[in-house]
Amino acid sequence: QVQLVESGGGLVQAGGSLRLSCAASGRSFVAYVVGWFRQAPGKEREFVAAITWSGGRTEYADSVKGRFTVSGDNAKNTAYLEMNSLEPEDTAVYYCAARARGTTSYSYWGQGTQVTVSS
Fold it and tell me: In this model, does residue 28 exceed pLDDT 90?
């Protein structure tokens, strides 16, 4: 079992920055892909970014490329989502999730953290 806890959300003005953290307990991330997702009110949950822990391969949704950066700290078993140039459209609850490498479904999810970007 992997337990995930997000933190770092909050209220920020458009153009500002936030860094979200996703701390894992119960198991190391080393054999996992860690993804970030978000869900805005009235919308479906969407993929934001992901990192393959071993090797560091990253991928991003087109809407956040060039603005968001996903990274990980092995020593802390924590993933990060650095968000810059935030826009009101980025307002959502952000979730981190983990799936074992070689699988397609995210099995473990955090509780979510609210990000609100004011115009």
Answer: no
Per-residue confidence band for 86, with pLDDT thresholds at 50, 70 and 90: very high
Burial readout 52-70 (b: 16 or more C-beta within 10 A, e: otherwise): bbeeeeeebeeebeeebbb
Question: Is residue 55's pLDDT more than 90?
Answer: no
End-to-end CA distance of the chain: 40
For 46, 55, 108, 119, the CA distances from 95, given in Å and listed in that order, are 10, 22, 10, 23
Rounded CA Rg of the chain: 13
* CA–CA gap between residue 11 and residue 110 (Å, rounded): 20
